[in-house]
Amino acid sequence: MKRRQVLAAIGVSTLSGCAALTQGTSNKNSPTTLRDKPGECANSPQWESLQGNPQRTGTYTETSPAFTETTSEVVFGRTVEGTTPVVGEYHIYVTGTDGLYALSRDSKSTVWSKTISDFQSLSPLVVCDLVVFQTGNQISAFDTDDGTLRWDRDFVTGLGEASPLATSDAIYAAEQSSVSSLTFSGERNWEALNGDHAIHGIAASDDRLFVTASVPDDGGGAVHALTLDDGEHEWRTEGIESHGEPVVGPDAVYVLERDGPVHALDRGSGERRWQVDVESSANEAPPTLDIASNTLFTPTNSEVIAIDTESRDVQWRTDVGGSDSGIAKCGDRLYVPGRNVTELDATTGEVLWESTEYAGTGPAAVTSNALWVNAGQELVTFAP
User: Fold this and answer.
1) Domain count, the chain
2) What pLDDT digit, counting tens, does each position of 75-119 carry?
3) What region holds the Pyrrolo-quinoline quinone repeat domain (predicted)?
4) How far apart are CA 354 and CA 363, in angstroms?
5) DSSP secondary structure letter of residue 363
6) DSSP 8-state assignment for residue 358
7) What is the DSSP string of 11-50?
8) Are 93 and 373 in contact (CB under 8 A)?
9) Closest CA to 55 of 267, 247, 254, 325
10) How far apart are CA 364 and CA 285, in angstroms?
11) DSSP per-residue letters across 141-153
12) Vertex 200: Cα angle to 198 and 201 (nearest 5)
């Protein structure tokens, strides 16, 4: 999408609330089929979900070449606004306006596609040799190489707005009013958080699943923690209305509240550690966490703000004209979608380059030969 086509201000209506929720019910007897590949492939440094890993940190673990704004190319013309291209071993997986597409990482041409008439406008999930896609009231898994349907599963209440994620042991997906753990063959392990509420985002540590949820017209929200093994409800912190993904650090969970502050919650207990006001975030994008430097990069509707997670000090703030999508960090650079596509120095916040021709509408994906950006209805690459 060209920059002139993007509205000067992006408004998001406020939802609210969180009701009493039941604990998870476990189905220990569900059959489990082992995946075709070793478990560690689920946690490889691929962008297998919206924020790149189960913790949703948004930080790519490898370094990248220096991309430039002068070498851009439109490689696909039917992307769904707000989704992110997802990196697999050989292909890039894209949510198109009529279904799921696999593009070659090298040639950028279409390798295979699946026309789907009723699907969620969310990014796919790549885990091992599966690409998982939300289709109406179903979650479906396709073979990454040729698009063969491997399995699908009906969700009675319909899928919610949270992108699925995977750990080395299971796939976790959100329905409109509950979350489920699935085996890699699509069997359900457990279902939890059944109630009159909306699930907005999920993230995982090595032992817990963290969930942001709210109840429409109720005026509040909450962050929940469930055990990964059986969905037991460990803690709930109320009074935080976030429609984005939680972000998981070594000992804290970070949540950006709509129109409000960034919260740090104790990972084990949910106790509030601190909050930092960031002045009218007004979007659903989560912050990006760099664990190595203890820095939380927070998007707002005008700036990117870098916060020290230990001291709570604001290290820098840079006006990027607004960003309503997650920020990708790779090496010492930040890639910020918004009214422009902007590359920042992660240490200083200095603008390294800015593409005024395209506006990014979803988190970027990074490979060794390209920066992949959803520019509204076009997939654009920037080359080194």
Assistant:
1) 1
2) 988 888 778 888 887 899 998 888 899 999 889 999 999 988 776
3) 178-297, 301-357
4) 15
5) -
6) B
7) -----------PPPEE-TTS-----SS-GGGGGSSS--ST
8) no
9) 247
10) 13
11) EEETTT--EEEEE
12) 140
d(CA 41, CA 30): 23
Whole-angstrom Cα distance, residue 68 to residue 249?
31
Query: How wide is the angle at C-alpha 199 spanned by C-alphas 324 and 375, nearest 5°?
Result: 25
CB-CB contact of 378 with 76 (8 Å): yes
Look up tokens 């916040």; give the residue: 349
Domain that holds residue 159: 3-382
Contact 344, 50 (CB under 8 A): no
Which residues sit opposite 369 in a β-bridge? none
Could you list the beta-strand ranges (E) of 257-370.
Answer: 262-266, 272-276, 288-290, 295-299, 303-308, 314-319, 328-330, 333-336, 341-345, 351-355, 365-366
Q: For the range 349-356, what are the long-range contacts, defined as Cβ-Cβ under 8 Å and sequence gap of 24 or more?
A: 349/304, 349/306, 349/315, 349/316, 349/317, 349/318, 350/318, 351/318, 351/320, 353/68, 353/69, 354/69, 355/69, 355/72, 355/382, 356/3
- Look up the pTM and report it: 0.85
pLDDT single digits (tens) 133-159: 887 678 899 999 999 999 998 876 666
